[in-house]
Design a protein that fits this description.
Helix content is 45%, strand content 15%. Strands 3-2-1-4-5-6-7 form a 7-stranded parallel β-sheet, with helices on both faces. The structure holds uridine-diphosphate-N-acetylglucosamine (UD1) and uridine-5'-diphosphate. The site of uridine-diphosphate-N-acetylglucosamine has 18 residues, from helix 1, helix 5 and helix 11. Uridine-5'-diphosphate binds next to helix 1, helix 12 and helix 13.
Length: 376
Amino acid sequence: KEAVAGLQGADGMKVVTVLGARPQFIKAAAVSRLLRALPGVTEIFIHTGQHYDENMSGVFFSELEIPQPEYNLGVGSGSHGAQTGQMLELVEQVLLQEKPDRVLVYGDTNSTLAGALAAVKLHMPVAHVEAGLRSFNRRMPEEINRVLADHASELLFAPTEAAVRNLRGEGIPEERIKLVGDVMHDAALFYGAKAEIKSDILERLQINRKGYILATIHRAENTDEPRRLRAILGGLLQAAADISVIFPVHPRTRSALKRENLISIDHPDLHMIDPVGYLDMVMLEKHARLIATDSGGVQKEAFFHGVPCVTLRDETEWVELVELGWNRIVPPRSEREVAQALLDSLDHPGGREGFPYGGGDAAAKVVQCLVEGVNS
Ligand code: UD1
Ligand code: UDP
């Protein structure tokens, strides 16, 4: 809060933040704490309802101490067009009613795209946190969402130098691009200390520090592709013969595992558990020997907490993690390759030191630029 205490010029400013999926609650928590502390600023949350289970949504609002959304659109799950279309229609109605000075969106989900598109068509300035990330794989729904949200935005908050280069390469005017660092780093620092005090997940699961692999999987390219899903689950099972595997299962993945008759696999050291709250997740990350994931956020959190990571994908947007040696990209082609990569990485000492995601002050920079606008 001290970081933004001296800011001027926010009198009467109204910001509408559109969010809807798990990682957005965490990113927004870091920014909203500071934004709402600014005198003269009002922030209103529109929750699209993209994620709705208690452990995918509600838990984050209570744990991260962010206010309940003023609007919950209750859109829920659906095909891309149906889900995004409904959000677009309903977000527009709220924006017309609230008439904000800025519309803030995060990341690359369908909620991001709907928020950005609804706002830009109403000539309301859009600010995008996590702008400029690219996998250069247009088959990913997230890649489409990012590119379109970036091009609809007036203010583009880039977390990394690589993201800035991508935006320049796409012809985004220089004055709109703000290199601020990664708000997830801020969240990891702030909540990392709290987790040690508040989370008892290691005791509940009866696991030892540095005695397990933490795994998360949810990308469509892995869950909706039976060969890849089987390679991942088979690889985790093989690894579980050597070390416990803790696997909080995303609801998309649970459905896919059910579809493939893989959900009832029973192994004493492969713990398929429900998704956990953020403080429990941070605790699991900090004390894992290795993290295996296809999540964007979890890849970075591994690095923030000094844990080596195997990314079960064909590419990553977070190229710095690979360059520094903290992250290894392993396309999940076969059980054997996945298991081998996990077991080989168990004794990996980690990578080189580096600070590609800023100094933990990204949220303060976002708030400052948001208030001061393009010419900040
Ligand atoms: C979405 C984002 C993805 C992000 C992820 C974070 C898009 C296109 N994808 O993927 O970029 O990394 O969120 O977790 O926006 N479901 C439930 N309960 C819930 C939420 C979802 O059961 O609370 C199930 C439904 O069966 C749903 C499926 O999960 O169809 C997928 O949910 P959806 O929000 O469409 O995509 P995610 O895979 O969560
Ligand atoms: N996360 C969590 N509980 C879980 C799994 C993940 O709190 O069971 C957190 C994780 O720490 C990170 C964020 O959710 O902050 C990442 O979200 P996700 O992997 O769903 O999406 P992505 O980052 O890939 O968009």
